[in-house]
Amino acid sequence: MAHVTAAERRPQLIAAAIELMAREGVAAGSTRAIAAELGVAQATVHYTFGTKADLYRAVLESLSGELVVGAQRAVARAASLEEALRATAEAYWIDMNDRPELNLVWFELITLSLRSTELREVVERHYRDIAEIATDALIETGRRTGRSYAVPPEELAGFLLAGLDGVSVSHLIRGEAVPGPQTRGMLDRLVQATVALAGPPPVNGR
After folding, report:
1. Tens digit of each residue's pLDDT (9 = 90 or more) over 10-61
2. How many separate domains does the chain show?
3. 205 falls within a domain
4. Fewer C-beta within 10 Å: the chain N or C terminus?
5. Overall pTM surpassing 0.85 (yes/no)
């Protein structure tokens, strides 16, 4: 049997973990179960990631990575703050429609982390990373469009991210297979509220 390096095994284990968690819940995602999902020894999981917390961080990064990259690309083309926020909301909407089952995995991971010191640190660090990316995007949008903000960019980013989490939770509670018009409306109103919080744009439209 050909030797598989840790670098090659890593994405395989992440995919196996996500598939297992989406099907059976995050609580079922032990290293033993994840190893069985891929058909490898449990020691392979620990060799590849070191700790369970490292694996869970990789899962979080995988769940959010595609969405973050898509939003960054859309925001980079935006000609105004509102356009940038609508592009972000659209990327979020597409992700919720394309991968509805992973929305629950995301929040199960967060909930689980609240009872685990090690996992909580992982989630908090991941949230800080996402908040930093969002803040940098707002700063760059302001620089590119000549837009100033009535509140610090990090507070504006925090408001937007908290709103997106709220939209997701609301969607989960309603038990929709895929997000519907109500979720779409919430995203639209979140964009409007974030633009309003940012304050009026310059008089010259720049």
Report:
1. 999 999 999 999 999 988 889 999 999 999 999 999 999 988 888 988 998 8
2. 2
3. no
4. N
5. no
Q: How far apart are CA 206 and CA 192, in angstroms?
A: 18
Give the separation between CA 119 and CA 125, rounded to whole angstroms.
10
Residue with tokens 């940098």, as numbered in its chain: 136
* Angle (deg, nearest 10), helices 153-174 and 100-113: 110
Residue 17 and residue 95 in one domain? no
Distance, in Å, from the CA atom of 202 to the CA atom of 206, rounded to the nearest integer, reads 6
Residues 43 and 90 grouped into a single domain: no
Distance CA 131, CA 133 (A): 5
Instruction: State which residues form the domain around 39.
Output: 1-50
| DSSP output for 58-82 | HHHHHHHHHHHHHHHHHHHT-SSHH
CA 138 to chain centre: 17
